[in-house]
Each structure stands twice: as structure tokens, then as C-alpha cells.
Amino acid sequence: MAQQQVQPSRAEEYKLKDTSPQLGERWPHTRGSGWMGLVYGGDKLTSTYDLVEQMYYLYVRVVKAKNLPTNAVTGSCDPYVEVKLGNYHGTTKHFDKRVNPEWNQVFAFSKERIQSTILEVYVKDREMVARDDYVGRVVFDLNEVPTRVPPDSPLAPQWYRLEDHRGEGKVRGEIMLAVWIGTQADEAFPDAWHSDAASVQGEGVFNIRSKVYVSPKLWYLRVNVIEAQDVQPNDKSRLPEVFVKAQVGNQVLKTKVCPTKTVNPMWNEDLVFVAAEPFEEHLVLTTEDRLSQTKDELLGRIVLPLTLFEKRLDHRPVHSRWFNMERFGFGVLEGELRKELKFSSRIHLRVCLEGAYHVMDESTMYISDTRPTARQLWKQPVGVLEVGILSAQGLAPMKKTDGRGTTDAYCVAKYGQKWVRTRTIIDNFNPKWNEQYTWEVYDPCTVITLGVFDNCHVGGNEKPGGGGAARDMRIGKVRIRLSTLEMDRIYTHAYPLVVLQPSGVKKLGELHLAVDSLRYQAMSIVASRLGRAEPPLRKEAVEYMLDVDSHMWSMRRSKANFFRITSLLSGTIGMFRWLDDVRRWKNPITTLLVHVLFLILICYPELILPTMFLYMFLIGLWSYRFRPRHPPHMDAKLSWAEAIHPDELDEEFDTFPTTKSHDIVRMRYDRLRSVAGRIQTVAGDLATQGERLQSLLSWRDPRATSLFVVFCLVAAVMLYVTPFQMVALLAGLYMLRHPRFRSKLPSVPNNFFKRLPSRIDSML
């Protein structure tokens, strides 16, 4: 009991907190006050970046220079530009022997770190041995810098005559510059050099930038292996036991061994793979002869590009085709005989790319997209989701640099096929991103996932071979179900970033958001493709966002799912199963007796059904006062992360297969975890169904509860004015109709019920 009692201070830190950020772009009425005199006198709200706090920057665009003087000694000029503002200075790349260089580079200085009223732009000549020479400079007074308000056009750069670095007169050469004050909504912001990341050099600069990624387009590749002909074994004295092995990338599937020993085997088996556009992998098919349980012999092989196959968008059958296989084995000869042997065996296939299905790359419990692969089958979007990633507070040190704890945090958000990554805030336990992103919503019963990570690659600390020396550390994750949000309402909350570690559950900070209203293979493909981007979205981040290890055995998760089940009525499942058996006429005698009982009850209608619906309507109306005011968040208590035993935690973070040394213990341990993982999934599904039933009147999903409450009201009114005997008779006979009069498609109420939310969104 002592472990389950949480101190009020600790329980409080795991709760969702309301915040009151200053959202929207706000500009002064007059721009003449300049940078240093900037005040929030008047408000001008724009349509972009209105869900984040505005962060003001001084932007300097260095475009190019012309007619630069050459060095009197070397006779050449290796120019570069240094932009200096107080203690901060950034430099462009340098060019060798060029008097008319072009840089086209942008520098951004945060207002919060400005320590000077003078901006200095120096043009220098790089020297290999001596100190770099000054070519000239341009000086700006920050009080005279104009302000650019989106959606104004970009500020046009101008030519400035260079002056002596001591300010004693003009010198030869001109530089084209544009200087303005703006916010993070400026299009120059993502690719600009930032003063708050001045310590990052080299390749690390590319690893800290914000980026938008798009998941690759995934297809299901269905390979129907029908039959083969003239499959000759290498040993002519026996008939082969043939099976087909198919491979796409690192996915390998096999058919069963043909039950008949023959040179013309038949299988008619379906093998399903996951493929991504552009199709880089090939379909590799081999026919093999099963010599023994441990030995197979290759007989034939064929390699087919995926672009060869038809893309199917409906249920129409795909035409089958015969393919000639290349012969393998002792009978293969060179020259003219090889051409003949290539056609000695062939295989009959029916292959297509399925475009009418959605390829699952994330858990169905918190899926973010249900659209089919083929764009032609997409419906129109039902709305737009806008998310402002504001800041995080109180992050814990994730690594040590120069003997002190540091955190370089960035945030990743995933919804549908679109991934976003904020810029990395260097060495800050209270980072402020204030970046806003937009997604089209095609189904409100979906979940957006946001994760915060510590960037371990800002210093370019990677191995020479390309392998990273460190992995980006997870700080925490937040999931938000869109159906729990109200339309046209802005939510501003601080979400606790709770993560489970081998040492126990920890709160590693708070994430501030503003919201306006064959899976493993798919995940591997998505992680591989996103890892090629610049900056790469690394595999550990993709795996954490997609919950790749959610199916593994965990005593903690099993306990949490079990107690979710016990919170429901124990007899509910049994009652529904019995009613389902009666409806399906599993026992005709029982079903007939139920018919007789039902007809008897028709004679005493009273006010049972109207009262029941009216009662549920009143409950729903009363519950509206106590409806959840905040979106769900990660619940450490619901997840049983607070009272977990250290040994159970060690088991959860153990590798699979286990690292235990004893062979017998390892075998039993792995078997237990595999079986328990399935039990865990079933337990979670049962709890989800019960919680969906509870959510009908809880206003967790406002739209669904509104529809149900209105339905209850309409039903109550209709049943008050309609004879009960007629309604009950028609409803009862419809429910008890024979299975031959039922449709195989799910009913509308069943489809509606499966789209209701559950508390799985709040579990770790």
C-alpha cells in the first residue's frame, strides 16, 4: 500500500496544467520605434503563426559583393563576411580568389540575447598564415532597422558601399545586404544561422534545423503463387518436394511444401509484403527442393521489378501471368544450351499492388491515418488541425558536456503521412520553439503524437563510418485524440513529459502546446526513408513515435490492462455473448423460447423503453457539467508506472530474446514473455471496448456524445407517441432474425461504436 500512495506534490506534477501564453502575431502601430523600442501597443493578428508566442529576430541577409580589392602581397582576395552584434558573430563560407563572391546566407539574432544597438557587417580576406585582413565594413543602427510584417513580400536587398573598418572613410568594394526585424514566421527563419546556436559548427548545423518530412507511400504487394511447371531436381532419381521462397528487401516469406512430389507443383497461396515508392527493391522468387528438415536446394530463380505489376484499386481480379525462371544446379551449361535451360521451368503468378488498403505503420489504438494508399480513393478533408509547439519547462539534464549536465531538445510531431521536427534549442532546460504546423484532417477519430528528444548529434560526434556514436535520448511523449477536441477552440496546456526508464518512471519536463482543433516492416521502411533526409529523422525517434515495442511483454502493462477490465461490470461480456448466440440461432430451441418470452413482454409495454432512453438522455445532459475540460494526457497512475517493482521494471527493459545465461531459463522466459504479450493485447482490447461504451455519455468525444444524446432525445419523443407494442415487436423481430437475412457488412451502430475513444490514449 505504501507504494501506491503518491505524495500530493508528485501526483500534482503528473497532471495537465492550464497556461496563458500570448498567442498570435502582435505588432506596434508605428514601426519607427525600431528594435529597441518595440512594444505591444496595438494588436495586428495575422493568419499565420497565431497559435504560438511571437519571437522577434534581427535578420541579416548577406547576398553578394562586387569589386572587392585584392591583397597587395598575394594579388588575390579570399573573401568571407562576418556579421557581428554585441558578443555574437556569425561568418559565411569563404571563396578562394574571387572579387565578386555570392553567399546568399541569412543570419538571425534573437531579441532576447541582444546586447548592442549597433550591427556591424565586416568583409574580410582570409589569410593562411597571418591574421585575416579587413576589407571593409557596413554599420547599422538597430533603431533604424525596418520591420517586416507577414505576408509582406521579402525585403529587397540593397548595395552598400564599404567603409574603412575604423570608420575613417569609404574604400573600394560594395556589398548587397538586407536587414530587417521579423518573427519565426519569416520564410528565412528555417535555414538561417541562429545566434542561440552559435556554438554548433560544421555538420552539426544541419542536425539542428527544423524540417517537415513526408512518409513514403506504402503499398501492400500481394503475390499469389499458383503453380510451377517442369521443376527438375538436380537428383534425377527422385521427385522434388518443392516450395517457393519470395523476398522483397529484407522481407522473406515461403509457401508450404507442395503436398505432392511432382515436377509440376501447385500451391495457390498468397504472400503479402510491404513496398514503398519509389520502388527500389525487386521481387525475388526462388523454387527450392526440400531435401531434409535442415537442407534445401535451389532449383530456379527470377527477379522481377515491382513497377511491372498492376495497381489494383477495387475487388476486380488481376490477370495471372507465366514467368520463365533461371535454372540453377548441376545441369546449368554455358553458351547456347543455357538459353534452352532458362525456359526449362516456369512459374504461374498473380501479383498486384493493393491500393484500396491502408498500410499500417503504427498501432491501431492510436492511429493517425486511415486513408487507403491510392489517392483516387481519398475523401475530402473534414477540417484542419493546427498545432503550435510553444515550449518545454524543467527538462532534466540528458547528457554531460564539459563536466556539466546539458539538454539539446527538439520536438517531433506525427500525424498522417506528415512528420515535423522543430529546430534544436542548444543547452537549455526551458527551450522555446514557438513553431506552428498544419495538417489536413480526414478522420476526426485519429490521434496526433508528439515526442521530445535530446539531440546527441549537434557536435558532429559520429563515427567515421557513418554510424552514430550516440542515440537521441527520449524525453517524453504526448498523444491527443482529435475527437476529444472541440471545433474552433484553442487549447493551451502544459503536458507532463513522462517517460519510463530502467530506474523507474520520471517526469522530465512539461511540453506546452496550443491545438486548434505487416506493421513492423512498414515502420522499418518509414524509418529507413526518413533517415535519408537532411537533417535525418533518426530511427530511434521514429520507433518511439510509432511505439514499435508496444507488443512486447510487460508486467506493468498487463497489470494496468487487467485493472482497466476489473473497473467494468463483470457480467457485461457474458450477457452480450449469450444474446449474440440467441440472435445467430446457435441453439434453435433457446432462440424459440426467447421469441415466446419476447412476445409475452410485448403485451406489457408500460413505459420501459421511453423511460430508459429519457433516463440516459438526462444522464448525458447532467454529465455535460462534469465533462472533461482538457484533452487526455499520459497518466502515470493509470499506466501503473508509479508503483512498479524494480524486478518487474528490469524485466520490461530486458532485451528480447533475454540476456540470461542459463539455457533452460532463457527458453522458458522467452516463451512466457511471448504468450503473455498476446494475453496483454487481448486484455487491452477488452478494456478498450468497455471504455468506449462508457464514453458514450462522458463527453470525452463531444461529437459522438452529442449525436448519441440527440438520438436518445429523438428516440424518447418518438417512443412516447408510437405504440410500444409496434416498436418493440419490429425491433425484437429485427434483432432475432435468422442469419440468412443478415448482411455481412458491419452495421452502422457497430461502426459508430468502434470509432469511440478509450483511455488507451492516456497510457504510457
TrEMBL record:
Keywords: Membrane, Repeat, Transmembrane, Transmembrane helix
Signal peptide, first to last residue: none
CC terms in the record's Gene Ontology section: membrane
Segments forming domain C2: 39-160, 200-323, 366-495
Localization in the cell: Membrane
Keyword Transmembrane helix: yes
Segments of this protein annotated with the region Disordered: 1-25
Predominant place of localization: membrane
Membrane-topology annotation of the record: Multi-pass membrane protein
Transmembrane regions listed in the UniProt entry: 591-624, 707-736
UniProt similarity note: Belongs to the MCTP family.
Name assigned to this protein: Multiple C2 and transmembrane domain-containing protein
